[in-house]
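## Example pair
The file below holds two records. Each record gives the amino-acid sequence first, followed by its structure token line.
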Amino acid sequence: MVFSRVYLATVALAAVIVAAPSVQADTLTTALSETYNNNPTLNAMRAQLRATDENVPQALSGYRPVLTANAFIGPSYTRGRSGPNIPTSSRTTWPRGVGLTIEQPIFRGFRTQNSVKQAESSVLAGREILRSTEQDVLLDAVAGYTNVLQQQAIVGLREQNIEFLREQQRAAADRLKVGEGTRTDLAQTDAALSQGQTAYDVAVADLNSARATYLQIIGVAPKNLTLPVVNTRLLPKSAEAAVSAGQSRHPAIRAASYNVDTAAFNVKVIEGQLLPTVSLQGDLSRQDDPSVTGSWGTSATFTANLSVPIYEGGVVYSQTRQAKETLGQFRIQLDSARDQVRAAAVSAYGQLQAAIASITSAQSQVKASQLALEGVIEEQKVGQRTTLDVLNQQQSLLQARETLVLAQRAQVVAAYSLLATAGALSAENLGLKVQRYEPKQHYQAVRDKWIGLRTPDGR
């Protein structure tokens, strides 16, 4: 089975990565834990989901009474007369009053029920979007971690290349002094050394860039990174198994499915505006006028209200048609998500197989190039090979080693990409030692709240 060779293929990277002390080493698991805790993209998505949770209590408010208090006070001026022979009189009074109104919805055309279901579906979709973001962020962390390792290895290889070229330069200079070499040989070594130094400088710049990306994604600077080992037990054993797992549990598909439900309930909510509404209303008020002795009054009313929409200008009909088109759009997006996950699973599995095969090929190439270089050096000593032959063979060996490093990084990234396409790249599945974020805790804390301005965390 191809996956039985994943561990052996990965171990080879240790031979070309610059060795780092094991004390306080940052393993890939540690880096993923730091990412889970610190990544701003992931934390922002968690905050967005908490905001989405509030849609549910807002929808539930449709079941609850609305209580309103009012009060008034102000001067009232009157001037006039009550008959033709009666003098004109004027008067200023100061009426005042307080009132209390309570309205309890009874029936709103099923809008409340469907609004609650719509809000709950949007919360479920938000949780899956959070899972998808978690997978993307963790995969970015894997890429960032292995990229630093790769660039460290390349810097080490190119530094070794410079040392080799310097030795060749010294040897060419010594041969020229004793009349065994030529100025052409020395010029060739000088040119190769300059080219090697340039390549080394580029590698250092790439390493600094990789470290900056590592800090951006993981939240801490890289220290002593260690070689990651892929847990093959987590990987699907075939492309078909990866596709099957992805179709059943990939968060993008599940989120798209919940979006379809949300859109379907939205159609029902809008259609509910065309149905009658029933409510109960109670009013209690008291009025008096301190400027008029004995002037006061108290009233209480209780009414049942029925409202039947007849024609609202056509806006609700248009909104309903619009919502149905949106529902169709989300259904198409669900099919598209399934196709994308299927293609990604097949691609990731193929990339992993290709990376493992490339590692095997590159290892053979490194071994052969090393033997060839040793042979060319020995042949140069007896005059059968030129300095240029040695330099060319050294570059072939360097290229083979760098190809091996690239293939080994590709193998690790492809393995975790395969996990992601199967919907299995999560803190729980990877066994990260972190305080896991539980979306249900915030949801349960706010779902049935009737009052309160503070968030569950005290803000």
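Second record, same layout:
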Amino acid sequence: MKNALILLASLIGAAATGCATGPTSIPDASSAGARLYVSKCGACHSLPHPKRNSYREWQHLLELMQQRMAEQKMPALTGEEKEVLLGYLQRHAR
């Protein structure tokens, strides 16, 4: 329960700061991982900075977002896309 509350607070904070401050400057912006992060994750919402969450939190969030994508009939991430995205987030997580 505590982890769920922390995650919820993180998501609310990401949404609030993402909308209030405009586009997030992300590290290593020209990398394949960053481009994928922007194109896939930024398609639906403002991008939180990768340091906003730990790698473990990003793994959980990615699973949640994939569920939401399926609910919205959006194409699922391929195995390679997921690997690249998680690699990027792992390198730049807090």
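Notes on the second record: The radius of gyration is 13 Å. Residues 2-21 form the longest helix (20 residues).
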